[in-house]
Hints:
This protein has 2 domains: about 210 residues, 3-Layer(bba) Sandwich (FAD/NAD(P)-binding domain), CATH 3.50.50.60; about 180 residues, FAD/NAD(P)-binding domain. About 30% of the residues lie in helices and about 20% in strands. The strands form 7 sheets. Strands 1-6-5-4-22 form a 5-stranded mixed β-sheet. The protein has a 5-stranded parallel β-sheet with strand order 9-20-10-11-16, with helices on one face. The longest helix has 26 residues. The protein is globular and about 70 Å long. The protein starts with a helix and ends with a helix. The N terminus is likely disordered. Flavin-adenine dinucleotide binds next to helix 3, helix 4, strand 4 and helix 12.
Amino acid sequence: xxxxxxxxxxxxxxxxxxxxxxxNNKSTTTxxxxxxxxxxxxxxxxxxxxxxxxxxSGLAAAACLKQKNIPFVILERSNCIASxxxxxxxxxxxxxxxxxxCELPFMEFPFDFPTYPSKQQFIKYLENYAERFxxxxxxxxxxxxxxxxxxxxxxxxxxxNSNKGGVTTEYVCRWxxxxxxxxxxxxxxxxxxxxxxxxxxxxxxxxKSGEEFRGKKVLVVGCGNSGMEVCLDLCxxxxxxxxxxxxxxxxxxxxxxxxxxFGLSMWLLKWFPLGxxxxxxxxxxxxxxxxxxxxxxxxxxLGPLQLKNLSGKTPVLDVGTLAKIKAGHIKVRPSxxxxxxxxxxxxxxxxxxxxxxxxxxxYKSNVPYWLKEEDMFSKEDGFPTKPFPNGWKGKxxxxxxxxxxxxxxxxxxxxxxIADDIEQCLEAKAKHGS
Length: 434
Ligand SMILES: Cc1cc2nc3c(=O)[nH]c(=O)nc-3n(C[C@H](O)[C@H](O)[C@H](O)COP(=O)(O)OP(=O)(O)OC[C@H]3O[C@@H](n4cnc5c(N)ncnc54)[C@H](O)[C@@H]3O)c2cc1C
């Protein structure tokens, strides 16, 4: 297959007509291109697909292609693989789901890893994965623009290399695999008075541990898995956290009846309808936690799995935060109205002094900023518009891996499908000789 691909694409790259079309179109690729020095820009024709992003999804797609001897290039904006995990997560982080649900294709977690591997263990697993499949991304390459050129039937990517004094390279390829993740950019809410506030304000992507907040009063905004866990971490470092809860939230124990809640839910779903499994999860949670609304954590009207299916909103898997809330070590607060120098005013009229604010306000996809296409991705949220399991494939050789809101399992499913599809495409091409 490798040889066949090189030959087919090689023919194109040496076809003077194809090259002429490519060069003709250069000045019309993007508006900014016309002002940049087109002649000095490097242009690279890639044999096989380009994968944008070297997180777990990009690595999974790369391994699946490697197994089929399909060559590819991975472009990664940071200087390492899995940059979300290496650079933007807190020290105490562990996989939220048991390891068997977080494996990438063709490689299990080591037997001696715990059920919930630590961040360092997960990074080690990914490094070994890249090593095993000889995956070598091009680092410090930020894709700023990608557009399909109908004249040459290829994708053109404009890429900025932050290491080489901002050199721009144009990559041209037949297939484009988007693996930039559901968590590409931090979401920072607009809070009135943010410039007035005298303490530290930090998104969780920059929070490492509670050490720097020892003895301080800290307000954590957002009650997803990260917000809950940061509160716990702050408690462990003798800080005094309060948690802003703006929405209703499902908090479930991480384990029920001696099994992981996630694993148990997946198993039950094989036998029972979703509504029944939801009811079961809520009853067991109630038996373990009591009524979470009493603690200021109202439950949504829809059950946890139904809500996840409809909106992608993940239930919080509790690792001890709820006990701290019950014990009064973590206070629950409503939305912020505005900030003053040392004070936070809440919408219920109360005011309180804080030394710092941690924004556990989540992340968003960055696809709409760089991918110029009309069909596959929503301009609003940067996710595929087709619902799961059909969001992985678009038109003109465009693919998405890791946008299913189903974690690493979803990414692995996408990666296998994409490699199969590209293989079929190559086989069809080889058969028809075009
Ligand atoms: C705190 C936390 C805990 C989690 N725990 C779990 C868990 O236990 N189990 C689970 O299944 N999922 C979990 N997730 C979900 C998470 O999305 C996945 O674990 C995983 O990181 C997704 O991989 P990805 O490759 O799709 O995205 P990412 O890991 O975000 O990787 C995307 C890569 O693309 C790069 N990139 C972005 N834009 C560009 C560009 N324009 N040009 C070039 N490169 C670019 C980024 O630098 C990044 O390296 C967790 C997420 C978070 C935030």
